[in-house]
Amino acid sequence: MALKVKAKEKKLKFSKNENDPGFWRYVMVPDLYSTLDQDKVIKEAAIRSGVSEGVMQACWKGVGLFSFLEYLFAANPLGLCF
Questions:
Q1: Of 18, 33, 59, 60, which one has the fewest beta carbons inside 10 Å?
Q2: What is the domain count for the chain?
Q3: 19 pLDDT above the threshold of 60
Q4: Can you state the angle between helices 38-49 and 53-63, rounded to 10 degrees?
Protein backbone atom coordinates (compact mmCIF):
# COMPACT_ATOMS: atom_id res chain seq x y z
CA MET A 1 0.00 0.00 0.00
CA ALA A 2 1.27 3.43 -0.82
CA LEU A 3 -0.07 6.44 0.98
CA LYS A 4 1.37 9.86 0.35
CA VAL A 5 0.45 12.54 2.85
CA LYS A 6 1.19 16.22 3.06
CA ALA A 7 0.92 18.77 5.83
CA LYS A 8 -1.63 21.50 5.27
CA GLU A 9 -1.96 24.54 7.52
CA LYS A 10 -5.53 24.95 8.75
CA LYS A 11 -7.28 27.10 11.29
CA LEU A 12 -8.93 24.88 13.89
CA LYS A 13 -11.78 26.03 16.10
CA PHE A 14 -13.12 23.93 18.93
CA SER A 15 -16.21 25.95 19.76
CA LYS A 16 -19.09 27.59 17.93
CA ASN A 17 -18.28 30.96 19.46
CA GLU A 18 -17.73 33.57 16.72
CA ASN A 19 -15.10 35.33 18.87
CA ASP A 20 -13.01 32.17 19.22
CA PRO A 21 -9.70 32.98 17.48
CA GLY A 22 -8.92 29.31 16.85
CA PHE A 23 -5.48 27.84 16.37
CA TRP A 24 -3.37 27.52 13.24
CA ARG A 25 -2.08 23.95 13.06
CA TYR A 26 -0.60 21.62 10.50
CA VAL A 27 -2.97 18.78 9.63
CA MET A 28 -1.93 15.70 7.70
CA VAL A 29 -4.08 15.10 4.62
CA PRO A 30 -3.87 12.28 2.08
CA ASP A 31 -2.39 13.21 -1.26
CA LEU A 32 -2.21 9.87 -3.06
CA TYR A 33 -3.72 6.45 -2.41
CA SER A 34 -3.11 3.14 -4.07
CA THR A 35 -5.22 0.01 -3.74
CA LEU A 36 -5.06 -2.03 -0.57
CA ASP A 37 -4.28 -5.73 -0.71
CA GLN A 38 -6.94 -7.33 1.47
CA ASP A 39 -4.74 -10.22 2.65
CA LYS A 40 -1.91 -7.88 3.64
CA VAL A 41 -4.24 -5.56 5.59
CA ILE A 42 -5.89 -8.42 7.46
CA LYS A 43 -2.58 -10.11 8.28
CA GLU A 44 -0.98 -6.88 9.51
CA ALA A 45 -4.06 -5.91 11.54
CA ALA A 46 -4.13 -9.35 13.17
CA ILE A 47 -0.46 -9.11 14.11
CA ARG A 48 -0.75 -5.61 15.56
CA SER A 49 -4.03 -6.10 17.41
CA GLY A 50 -3.50 -9.62 18.73
CA VAL A 51 -6.79 -10.76 17.21
CA SER A 52 -6.82 -13.83 14.97
CA GLU A 53 -6.88 -13.47 11.19
CA GLY A 54 -10.24 -15.30 11.06
CA VAL A 55 -11.85 -12.63 13.24
CA MET A 56 -10.29 -9.88 11.12
CA GLN A 57 -11.59 -11.57 7.96
CA ALA A 58 -15.11 -11.69 9.45
CA CYS A 59 -14.90 -8.00 10.39
CA TRP A 60 -13.70 -7.11 6.90
CA LYS A 61 -16.63 -8.92 5.28
CA GLY A 62 -19.17 -7.77 7.86
CA VAL A 63 -18.61 -4.03 7.96
CA GLY A 64 -16.77 -3.29 4.73
CA LEU A 65 -13.34 -1.91 3.99
CA PHE A 66 -13.68 1.71 5.05
CA SER A 67 -15.52 1.04 8.30
CA PHE A 68 -12.92 -1.63 9.06
CA LEU A 69 -10.07 0.83 8.52
CA GLU A 70 -11.83 3.49 10.61
CA TYR A 71 -12.10 0.97 13.44
CA LEU A 72 -8.42 0.05 13.16
CA PHE A 73 -7.22 3.65 13.11
CA ALA A 74 -9.46 4.51 16.07
CA ALA A 75 -7.88 1.65 18.02
CA ASN A 76 -4.37 2.66 16.90
CA PRO A 77 -4.22 6.47 16.59
CA LEU A 78 -0.70 6.37 15.15
CA GLY A 79 -2.01 4.32 12.24
CA LEU A 80 -0.89 1.05 10.78
CA CYS A 81 2.45 0.92 8.96
CA PHE A 82 2.46 -1.39 5.97
A1: 18
A2: 2
A3: yes
A4: 120
